[in-house]
TrEMBL record:
It is an enzyme of class 7 (translocase). One of its GO terms (biological process) is aerobic respiration. It is found in: Cell membrane; Membrane. One of its GO terms (cellular component) is plasma membrane. This is NADH-quinone oxidoreductase subunit H. It catalyses: a quinone + NADH + 5 H(+)(in) = a quinol + NAD(+) + 4 H(+)(out). It holds the Pfam family NADHdh. Keywords: Cell membrane, Membrane, NAD, Quinone, Translocase, Transmembrane, Transmembrane helix, Ubiquinone. The keyword Repeat does not apply. It is a multi-pass membrane protein. Its EC number is 7.1.1.-. GO terms for molecular function: NADH dehydrogenase activity; oxidoreductase activity, acting on NAD(P)H, quinone or similar compound as acceptor; quinone binding. The gene is nuoH_3. It comes from Mycolicibacterium agri.
Length: 379
């Protein structure tokens, strides 16, 4: 058996191509699935003309974008304007390199893990890679030579800074509980109990932060069509516009895979499938991993169809006044639990009870605050 990253060169190349293909196919399916799910929730038909039952709609949309006229604004910084979509796409794809998609399997006689590579600080690598994608949005807004894209880029900068702090703090509790930042090590630590039950506040904070990190509704403030036309990509067309859309959906897939890895047991089979002896062996775990990722993708679609866009002050207040203080409080709680109870099993039990109490306490506090605000507005 060879460790991730130390496989033969041809196997590394094959796994890299497989990851890239997985992301592209996921994007094509996600675009079609989102339009069909939104149509279903809004009681309309959705795409149903191109191909059998509209299954080729995403492919045709990509061809249509490629054939559109490619216009560069006269006042744009041409070099940065052309590089911005590339900067947005590449980090989103690179971040997926350390995501474990399955256990060790046999590929043409070689034993290898279904993971391109791993490192002792793999989660920090993912955070760094996804953060780099924000530069593509900021530079696109600045280089377009227009006011609306510039405002969209500035909003994105504030948004990423605000919600990446809460996201990183939600991971800190996982590091404290497992003692590792390796993604494969974190998945192995969830062989018995998933961290969504042990670290419920961290999971809820991460899910909220990942929606803000990917600029999706109801947190799509950098775009905000009603205020900023199209936001940072207003001046982009043809394939450059398509690259921004590709970056958005790849980022959605990456953060969903990271949520699966950190809190839903990674490629481990869910209950009651895990009662089958062969559920976590062979190629079956790849199916469980993909199913969990798509559960988060469906959550994205559901949020877009359900919730209206927040005001910018509401959005920033949620990050700085709620998520970050609660994250800090929760990190301190887990640190105390690990100090008091060195036994991992006992620490997980105490953390689960403390997490449930924290979630209920925050929910009651927010509800009471909302009632007080409403009663203060009424005459």
């Amino acid at each position: 058996m060879s460790a991730p990253g130390f496989d033969p060169w041809w196997l590394i190349a094959a796994k890299a191509l497989a990851v890239f293909g997985f992301l592209l196919i996921t994007v094509l399916v996600a675009i079609l699935a989102e339009r069909r799910v939104l149509a279903r929730m809004q009681m309309r038909l959705g795409p149903n003309r191109v191909g059998p039952n509209g299954l080729l709609q995403s492919l045709v949309d990509g061809i249509k974008l490629a054939l559109k006229e490619d216009v560069t604004p006269a006042g744009a910084n041409r070099t940065v304007y052309l590089l911005a979509p590339v900067i947005a796409v590449i980090p989103a794809i690179l971040a997926f390199a350390v995501i474990p998609m399955g256990p060790v399997v046999s590929v043409f006689g070689h034993r290898t893990a279904l993971q391109l590579t791993d490192m002792p600080v793999a989660v920090l690598y993912v955070l760094a890679a996804t953060s780099m994608g924000a530069y593509g949005i900021v530079l696109a807004g600045w280089a377009s030579g227009s006011s609306y894209p510039l405002l969209g880029g500035l909003r994105s900068t504030a948004q990423v800074i605000s919600y990446e702090i809460a996201m990183a703090l939600s991971f800190t509790t996982v590091f404290l509980l497992t003692g590792t930042m390796s993604t494969s090590g974190i998945v192995a630590a969830q062989d018995g109990t998933w961290f969504v039950f042990v670290l419920l506040p961290s999971f809820l904070i991460y899910v909220t932060s990942m929606v803000g990190e990917t600029n999706r509704a109801p947190f799509d403030l950098p775009e905000a069509e009603g205020e900023l036309v199209g936001g940072f990509h207003t001046e982009y067309s043809s394939l450059k516009f398509a690259m921004f859309m590709l970056a958005e959906y790849v980022n959605m897939t990456t953060v969903s895979a990271l949520a699966t890895t950190m809190f839903l047991g990674g490629w481990h089979a869910p209950w009651p499938i895990n009662m089958w002896d062969g559920a976590n062996t062979g190629w079956w775990p790849l199916l469980w991993f993909t199913g969990k990722v798509w559960a988060f993708m469906f959550g994205y679609f559901w949020l877009r169809a359900t919730l209206p866009r927040l005001r910018y002050d509401q959005f920033m207040a949620l990050g700085w006044k709620l998520l970050i203080p609660v994250s800090l409080m929760w990190v301190m709680t887990i640190a105390v639990v690990r100090t008091v109870s060195p036994d991992p099993q006992a620490a997980q039990g105490i953390a689960a009870i403390a997490g449930l109490c924290l979630v209920l306490g925050v929910a009651l506090t927010v509800k009471r605050s909302a009632r007080a605000r409403i009663s203060g507005v009424r005459p």
